[in-house]
Amino acid sequence: MAEVALERRDRVLVLTIDRPHVRNAISPGVARELAAGLDELDGDSSLSAGVITGAGGYFSAGMDLKAFAETGELPHVPGRGFAGLVERPPAKPLIAAVEGFALAGGLEIALACDIIVAARGSLFGLPEVTRGLVAAAGGLLRLGEVVSRTTAMHMALTGEPIAAERAAELGMVNILSEPGGALDAALGVAGRIAENAPLAVSASKAVLLEAPAWDRESAWLRQRALIDPVLASEDAREGARAFRDKRRPLWQGR
Fold first, then answer.
1. In total, how many domains does the chain have?
2. Is residue 252 in a domain?
């Protein structure tokens, strides 16, 4: 039985972790199905963005420790890492829609997304140290990029969670929704992304992700390599014509 449900909403692919009986804990099967869904997202030109969420009012409690204790198999996918996502997210925008909580590997999945939408009252945390573990699926690498170093230290070293409202104040959460409304709010963001030129969206994401590793001397050259093809594209000309003619652009992705 599938552990990840895929649903197309116009140009958006919704990936729902469907294991509410274990708070959407990540099994090897979930990891493989998420990786396959993300391959579909990137490989289908009719899709512009993805939304990842969890069934039953929870985002994810992280790795399925019971399954790991029984089989010893980690929920990793070669080349993509934990949950089939954290080491190689999709090239297209991915939004996390969080209800209930995103804990341990659940938070690491959310941090691997580009935008986080969360219901008020939901919780975010890295409790690994309370279980003799370490947040090795990107939590320690990414958390300090979105909150201050001291806040990241406090969360990682105490294991204490923070509420979505506080996460929004710290810049971790982009948009707050009412409980039960995270998916609809995330779909609204994804829909706005889908209205934009796909080449421009892809290049913009790539620059934002890659630029921190660039040295000052080569940064402009590296950016130009990603952006020049967009400026020379048919979509760039179409955007200008649509602005001139006061109409909606018809993007071709070329």
1. 2
2. no
Under a CB-based contact definition with an 8 Å cutoff, are residues 90 and 38 in contact?
Answer: yes
pLDDT in tens, 19-71: 999 999 999 999 999 999 999 999 999 999 999 999 999 999 999 988 888 88
pLDDT tens-digit map of 70-93? 888 889 999 999 999 999 999 999
Q: Are residues 185 and 207 in the same domain?
A: no
Q: pLDDT > 90: what percent of the chain?
A: 92
Residue 197 and residue 235 in contact, taking contact as beta carbons nearer than 8 Å: yes
Catalytic residue among 128, 160, 165, 217: 128
Catalytic residue from among 40, 108, 160, 210: 108
Helix, strand, coil percentages, rounded to 5, for the chain? 50, 20, 35
35: domain CATH number is 3.90.226.10
Please give the span between the terminal C-alpha atoms of the chain, in angstroms, as a whole number: 38
Is residue 168 domain-shared with residue 122, that is, in the same domain? Answer: yes
Domain extent at residue 204: 198-245
Domain co-membership, 149 together with 220 = no
C-beta separation of 121 from 101 below 8 A: no
Distance CA 83, CA 32 (A): 7
* Annotated catalytic residue 238: no
Q: Is 7 one of the annotated active-site residues of the chain?
A: no
| Cα torsion through 155, 77, 205, 47, rounded to 10 | -120
pLDDT attached to residue 72: 81
Please indicate, yes or no, whether residues 181 and 89 belong to a single structural domain of this protein.
yes
Position 14 in a domain = yes
In DSSP terms, 16 is beta-bridged to 5, 53
